[in-house]
């Protein structure tokens, strides 16, 4: 077995191979109307670039839908696995390209799969470095997890539903904190559904959005907070009844 000091070299290798795959897909796109496009696709960083990307990819929808789907899935997993910011733009893109239903199902599943890839990368290649870099934050999160072990899944669900939670940090720290991978996967899948739905639904009316702030209004954030509170209630009830049972004994 390789030492962690040697294992970390696998991360840049995997990143390079993944980047080559994304570059290949984006550069060598199928021909449109018998002619190949000269433009290279790139990740959008603002709404103007996103609208331009939607216009370009829409040209492929009728004849090359499988290519669009493969490109989108590859790009989404790439961003999630390597904790690259900007998933909100891909969620909006999903709504614009696939519609609400297919876009929501696709982004929810890809979010869970991509986050699990990040989990596995952290578990196998990055533990010592992550612990060294984020020691205080990991210790604090570990205290909270230990205090909620009786209702661990509900607590993880709350963390994902809570709109201010740093999902990238939860992804890389979960294997270090011995969060079971099935708990991790399903808490991401279910916990980020409201966020994904809001983004995908907004993507269906992309032309009416002027900035990302139009998506996460005060009303939207309050709704997400409300959902997070509801999710943590079962865990609180379980914890309450267990403490009560211990006192009675």
Describe this structure in words.
The protein has 249 residues and is an all-alpha fold. It has one domain (4-29, 47-248). It is built from 11 helices and no strands. It has helices at residues 4-7, 10-27, 47-58, 65-81, 87-133, 135-147, 152-161, 167-173, 181-191, 193-203, 218-248. The protein starts with a helix and ends with a helix. Mean pLDDT is 83; it is low at 244-249.
Backbone shape = globular
Q: In angstroms, what is the radius of gyration? A: 20 Å
The total count of helices amounts to 11
How many structural domains are formed by the residues?
A: 1
Beta content = under 5%
Q: What does the largest sheet look like?
A: none
Q: Low-confidence spans: pLDDT under 50, at least 5 residues?
A: 244-249
N-to-C SSE string, H for helix and E for strand:
HHHHHHHHHHH
In helices, the fraction of residues equals over 70%
- Tally of extended strands? 0
Oligomer: single chain
Distance between the termini: 48 Å
Overall average residue pLDDT: 83
Pairing-aware structural class of the strands and helices? mainly alpha
Membrane topology: Multi-pass membrane protein
Main location: membrane
Subcellular location: Membrane
Pfam family, one: VTT_dom
